[in-house]
């Protein structure tokens, strides 16, 4: 199958396997972290997410200095070992001491910093490891697909493991997983060329490249907007409506409500999203703006459709309407995200420094997190003013309007 053809290359297979281990382990780690934080500090566990977001932003913006000082061939492995060292801390504290929130905060910040360095390094290495354009497109789809799949399988795996193990043992498992990933990435790093003397990189280089590429700049702004809209609707409004309405659905005699109804919605979204992701990976490589914008517009239209349930449908149809809209929404984003990753990797053109792709990816991380942060700050007052149903309609409509504006501004700049 075309979508999985890059795995025939041993280096790509090792990179994909290591990435699968890290991303799935991160989701298991996230479940354990949140659960123990709630047990330890209750409602103040929300500060943990804020600390992680701040660490991710700071790591993406200023971590280029560290990346420039490390030997490129070992950098990915060293990042994983850094994460492993700190993920072990809460396991040791819970196993041999007493529960303490600072141990969870330390591990959460360390993993965020690890991701802020590992993701740009992988993105920068891909064009070197996979110079063929078609194979690079399919490889991006594979790596993006495992990230999306991990969002579904990771929490499920954590739930199954928690049936047999204490929750803090999940930290030990993730520690071992990161060590294994570090070993796999050594062979990947060995295929990279030595770092160029005085090779400049980091967030500043990324900003310079983006400034000189107006199409990429507009796409990153659009990505920040649509990520914020997605978070406001699916992460904030959807669970709020499910909880406050008390909506129930009884298919085949099984009642679904509360957190189970929310979890099912996320699972429906995840399955549809992964399916679309691998379908895109099987298509010929293209950077077509028309296809990218069609995908993200479809996603925003699906988000608008989520307003139908709380605004106009009877309560008995609320959850099924949500699930249909979530499935349709999930089909759009891979058509935008996979070509965007490839545009980032090819940014600056052949004459750009080799560090350009990793540096632009840092800008992409910062842009996305800024959008998510703004959505998080706006959600409570917007929901209080208009209610979650009308807020979904307004936020989704704003996303569609931004997509249409992007169509107008980029219509003459398309390339394949």
A few lines on this structure:
With about 425 residues, this protein is mainly alpha-helical. The protein has helices at about 10-40, 45-60, 65-70, 70-95, 100-130, 135-165, 170-190, 205-210, 215-245, 260-280, 290-305, 310, 320-330, 335-345, 355-410; strands spanning about 250, 255.
Overall geometry comes to globular
Poorly predicted tracts of residues: none
* Helicity level: over 70%
* Beta-strand residue percentage: under 5%
Total number of strands: 2
Output the number of helix runs.
15
How far is the first residue's CA from the last residue's CA? 23 Å
Determine the mean pLDDT.
85
Radius of gyration: 21 Å
Give the H and E element order: HHHHHHHHHEEHHHHHH
For the biggest sheet, the summary is: 2 strands, antiparallel
Layout: helices, strands, pairs:
Elements: H1 10-41, H2 46-62, H3 64-69, H4 72-96, H5 101-129, H6 133-164, H7 169-189, H8 203-211, H9 214-245, E1 248-249, E2 256-257, H10 258-281, H11 289-305, H12 308-312, H13 318-330, H14 333-345, H15 356-410
Helix pairs in contact: 1-5, 1-6, 1-7, 2-5, 2-15, 4-5, 4-7, 5-15, 6-10, 6-14, 8-15, 9-10, 9-15, 10-13, 10-14, 11-13, 11-14, 11-15
Structure commentary:
With 416 residues, the chain is an all-alpha fold. It has 15 helices and 2 strands. Strands 1-2 form a two-stranded antiparallel sheet. Helix 1 packs antiparallel against helix 7, helix 4 packs antiparallel against helix 5 and helix 8 runs parallel beside helix 15. The protein starts with 9 loop residues before the first helix and ends in a 6-residue tail after the last helix. The mean pLDDT is 85.
């Amino acid at each position: 199958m075309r979508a999985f053809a890059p795995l025939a290359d041993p280096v790509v297979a090792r990179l994909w396997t290591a990435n699968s281990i890290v991303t799935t382990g991160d989701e298991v780690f996230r479940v354990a972290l949140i659960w123990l934080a709630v047990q330890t500090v209750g409602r103040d566990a929300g500060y943990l997410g804020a600390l992680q977001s701040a660490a991710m932003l700071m790591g993406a913006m200023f971590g280029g200095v560290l990346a420039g000082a490390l030997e490129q061939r070992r950098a990915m492995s060293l990042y994983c070992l850094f994460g492993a060292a700190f993920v072990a801390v809460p396991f040791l504290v819970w196993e041999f001491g007493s529960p303490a929130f600072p141990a969870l905060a330390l591990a959460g910040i360390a993993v965020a910093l690890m991701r802020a360095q590992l993701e740009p390094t992988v993105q920068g290495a891909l064009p070197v490891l996979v110079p063929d354009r078609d194979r690079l497109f399919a490889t991006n789809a594979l790596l993006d697909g495992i990230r999306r799949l991990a969002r579904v399988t990771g929490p499920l795996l954590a739930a199954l493991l928690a049936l047999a193990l204490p929750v803090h043992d999940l930290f030990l498992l993730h520690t071992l997983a990161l060590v294994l990933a570090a070993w796999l990435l050594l062979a990947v790093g060995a295929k990279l060329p030595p770092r160029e003397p005085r090779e400049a990189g980091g967030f500043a280089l990324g900003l310079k490249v983006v400034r000189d590429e107006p199409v990429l700049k507009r796409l990153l702004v659009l990505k920040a907007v649509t990520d914020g809209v997605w978070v406001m609707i699916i992460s904030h409004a959807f669970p709020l409506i499910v909880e406050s309405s008390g909506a129930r659905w009884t298919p085949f005699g099984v009642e679904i409500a509360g957190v189970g109804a929310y979890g099912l919605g996320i699972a429906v979204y995840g399955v549809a999203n992964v399916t679309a992701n691998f379908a895109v990976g099987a298509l010929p490589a293209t950077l077509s703006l028309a296809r990218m914008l069609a995908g993200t517009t479809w996603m925003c239209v699906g988000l608008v459709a989520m307003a139908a349930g709380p605004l106009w449908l009877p309560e008995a149809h609320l959850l099924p309407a949500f699930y249909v809209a979530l499935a349709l929404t999930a089909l759009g984003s891979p058509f935008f995200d996979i070509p965007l990753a490839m545009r980032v990797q090819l940014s600056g053109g052949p004459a750009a420094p080799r560090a350009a792709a990793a540096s632009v990816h840092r800008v992409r991380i910062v842009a996305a997190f800024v959008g998510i942060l703004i959505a998080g700050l706006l959600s409570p007052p917007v929901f209080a003013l208009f209610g979650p149903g009308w807020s979904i309609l307004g936020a989704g409509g704003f996303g569609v309007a931004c997509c249409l504006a992007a169509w107008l501004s980029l219509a003459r700049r398309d390339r394949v």
